[in-house]
Every structure is written in C-alpha cells, then in structure tokens.
Amino acid sequence: MASTIFNAPSAVASMKGVDCKNYVGLKPIVNDLKFNVVKTSVKAVPKRVFIVRASETRDGPMKKLGLSDAECEAAVVAGNVPEAPPVPPKPAAPAGTPVVPSLPLSRRPRRNRKSPAMRASFQETNLSPANFVYPLFIHEGEEDTPIGAMPGCYRLGWRHGLVEEVAKARDVGVNSIVLFPKVPDALKSPTGDEAYNDNGLVPRAIRLLKDRYPDLVIYTDVALDPYSSDGHDGIVREDGVIMNDETVHQLCKQAVSQARAGADVVSPSDMMDGRVGAIRTALDAEGFHHVSIMSYTAKYASSFYGPFREALDSNPRFGDKKTYQMNPANYREALIEAREDESEELMSFWLVKPGLPYLDIIRLLRDKSPLPIAAYQVSGEYSMIKAGGVLKMIDEERLMMESLMCLRRAGADIILTYFALQGARCLCGEKR
Fold this sequence. Notes:
Catalyzes an early step in the biosynthesis of tetrapyrroles. Binds two molecules of 5-aminolevulinate per subunit, each at a distinct site, and catalyzes their condensation to form porphobilinogen. The chain is 31% helix and 16% strand. It is an alpha/beta fold and 432 residues long. The longest helix has 18 residues, at 244-261. The two termini are 21 Å apart.
C-alpha cells in the first residue's frame, strides 16, 4: 500500500536530486517547488518534513527517498522527528448515553475479544479436517441411494460412489473414514457369519480403497447387527437374551477378517463384556500387532440412532438394546466401562457415542485418562441440524461448526461425523 506524503514546515535539510515525478505520492505544495542540496547547519535554514499517512492508497509500490539509516537517525537525534498521523479522536457515544465514572475493574476480559485477530490469538480450541473421521454407508448396488432421514447422505456403491466420495474428502484434508455396510437380507443369519467373510462387502471395499489410496486411514465397525437376522449386536438366545461370550467369539473373527483386508483401526461397537481384550489377543495371534482398536467405551442406548438404523436397515427385530448399551441416565457407569477397557491395557483409544448430548462424559474421560478420545456425532444429531437448516430455523453452517468445536472443547481428539466433508470445506474456505 502506497503512502501519501504531505509538506509541512520543519527544520530538516533539503535533499538533492529528488524528482517528485519519479516518486509515487510526493506532492509539493507549489508546482515549481524544487529540492536542492543546502550544505549548511541544520538550524540555519527553514526546512520541510514529510508527514506520512497510510490511509490513502495509490497504485504501484511506494518508492523510498534514499536516505541512509545514519541520516535518518541523525535527523531524529537533532530533534527533527518525522510526524506520523494524529491519534484518532475518541468515538462519540450515541445521544442519551449516561455519563458515568469508569468501573474500578482490575481485569477486563473483553480486551482479549475486541477484534478478530485478538480472538484468534487467544482461541483455546482449534478444529481441523485432520480431526474428522467420515462415516460412509456402502451397499452392493451400482447407484448411490439417498437416505431419506439423513439429507446429503447416501448408501454408496462400493465400486464407484465410495471411491468418488473418498476422493472428495481427501481433497479437503479428511483422510480417515469408517465403513458401515448395508448387507443383503439373504446373507443375514442369527449368528451373523457374513461378518467374517473375507470376500464380504466390507473387506472388498477396504481392499479397493487401499489399492487406490494406500495412505487412507480406514476404520471398521465390529458388531453383528448389520449381519444379524435379528438386528441385534450379538447372538440372541431363544428367550431373547443376548449371548455375551459366544458373540465375542464371532467378533474376534470379524476383526481379524477386517485387519486381513487392510483395516487400520477396528472399532468394537457391540458393548459386549471382555471383547476388547479378546479382539486384541486374536489380532496379535494373526500378526496384526499394528492394527489399532477404538473401543466404543461409552455407547448409550440412545434415541439419536434412528436415522442410522434406517440407513443400514438394521432395526432390532424385537425388543431393544438396553441390556448391553448404557443407560442415558448414568454418568459414573462410563468410568466403570473405561476402567474395564483400560485394565486390559490393549486398546488404543476410547469413543463416546452419541457426542453432543454427552459432552459431560467426554470431559469425564478426558480428565481421568491420557488416552486419546473419539466422539461420534451420530445420525440424529446430524439430521436435526439439517432439518433446522432446511426450515430456515437456524443457520446450518454456523451451528454445524459450533457443534464440532464443542466436541473438541469437551476433550475429543477426533470426531466421527457425517459433516466431515461439509465441515472440512468450510474450514478450507476460511483459510482461503
């Protein structure tokens, strides 16, 4: 930005060879004013000083006058300090504002919030596309099928739509995904054997993505509900009881199959007792020491999962999941689950699900352990924000970004969110 230079009386000596036509912004008071060398004492002649104002712009770069550092310093030492723009006047208050004495405050926190630059300087929590894990629904079809309860989300064809969506996410810095399959009903069974089919939908999709994007971080879901004809996360006994140990046996085979296909992180979401240690042992026995486990440590029996179950057509055929998922009324129980996982010393990090309604649980675990924590912003949270945006009841983008920031502020290191692509685009746009 060029500066406008004004003339004013002063005691600084004239300068030789300065042609106003060759220096942008130099404007003498009179048209025939010339600058000549006057070799005399500074106090002997009246001279001029340039007042620099940066508020007026000119095209092109501003050219310097050619004074050396020593000459500039000599002028200041002699008392000829260049004039700067005056201090701006104090803004006037509106008419009728009462005149009151200043409050005797030793601290005024608003000082650190007075401008965008100041607010950015003191921001305690930051959000990045690297914090996002993008949940993607896949199916056997060729076409991408929209999910009615989740506007903007699709069951992606694993051959084409999935690869294209991953490419979009990577373009804006999201390089972690988690896969959820919509399995054909004909392949479902009471024991969910399709879960560990090495040529099943999920292993095929993993191999395809790893072939295309070797550095992509792929999370998988370890649970039987997408593969169970009963729609439950475990094997159901004839009296309706979910069988714990028999289910864990199936989950171990599922995790090994996913690791064999190339999964980076397996995520047991079933909430069976003892499954984390059993899965770690099974993975290590097959040589998959490098595969991480993200344990659904605090997964609540929540009503926020409705749209997800529509997406996978995985509603329980009978009953509910309250005998294995946690009671939403319970707080301390999260510590019991966390200590059980941590006592095995075999897991990589924890997950809390749902996310935003359970910020207190995220903070509880954050304060109690140094382990990384993930939060799942589930389908119901996503759908509510989307619905509010469509109805113009809220600013969808602002609320989306605020909700993601709140999860980070509560202590989540990563966030599983259906807003991953949209949120990352917003963050990239802000940087641009």
